[in-house]
Design a protein that fits this description.
With about 300 residues, the chain is mainly α. It has one domain. About 75% of the residues lie in helices and about 0% in strands. Strands 1-2 form a two-stranded antiparallel sheet. A hairpin with a 5-residue loop joins strand 1 and strand 2. The longest helix is centred in the first third of the chain and has 32 residues.
Amino acid sequence: MNYMATLINMGHGLCYALASIFFIFLAKKLDDWRTKDFNDDRHIDDGNVAVGLRRAGLYLGIAIGMTGALSGESAGFRSDMLYLLADGALVTVCLFLARFINDSIMMGNMNNDRECIKVFTLEDGRTVTGNTALGMVEAGMYIATGFILNGSMSGSGGSFVQALGSALLFFVLGQVVLLGCGLLYELSTPFNVRDEIKQNNPAAGIGLAGILIALGIILKASLSGPFTGWINDIVGFLIYTVFGMILLIGFTALVDRFLLPTTNIATEVKEDKNVAALVLVQATIIAVALVIAHAV
């Protein structure tokens, strides 16, 4: 074992970790500035789960997206670090754009910021601050976008400009696909997903967030690898999109049938607001997505 090489690699890994922490800290400061009308740190200290979830999703999305720059063969520490810093800046910008898209289109009948500090009265009379369901969906959108950016930034081939253009193109296409997935999910359910989320039904939030993350994992697989040309990469992405959506909808039906034999997803969401059941269902769907992503 070459201990010196191991120590050098550990030092490089520490530098990469510090770079990711820098962008996470930068994202925190930008989000603090964006939501300067209320204090996110105070809400988190007070136990506001919605604010905690959306911040956690943002930070995870940054880390997931940035690791794409470190995949494939190393070009040397300096080059790897420069690519990581450039990709970190791009990922941060894209995730804030994704938040705006999530706020204005996917959850278009709501305002995420207001919902996450709104006071809700529970059925037993207790009050809670923050729409946890909406926080879950925003976190899911961040994480799914992070996976898409990770795939678009991984691999080799093409120039730096091509890599940058590819990341931006597939970020846009990825947002369109995630929005389409959200629409299909709502059409496939016998209840109004947005209405349930607006009423702070956490089971509904877990259901939508889980589907978004699972699709993001599958789309990452379609984008990983060397740049092979715009047409080939776009066609491959579209094929994976259709393939992934069909599989996820199909496996959701199977999970509903076999893992919830005495009930169904619609009942657990709409009537029972059963968080445990939806955690089980969506964890299974994400597990299936991970297997698909590594098998195809």
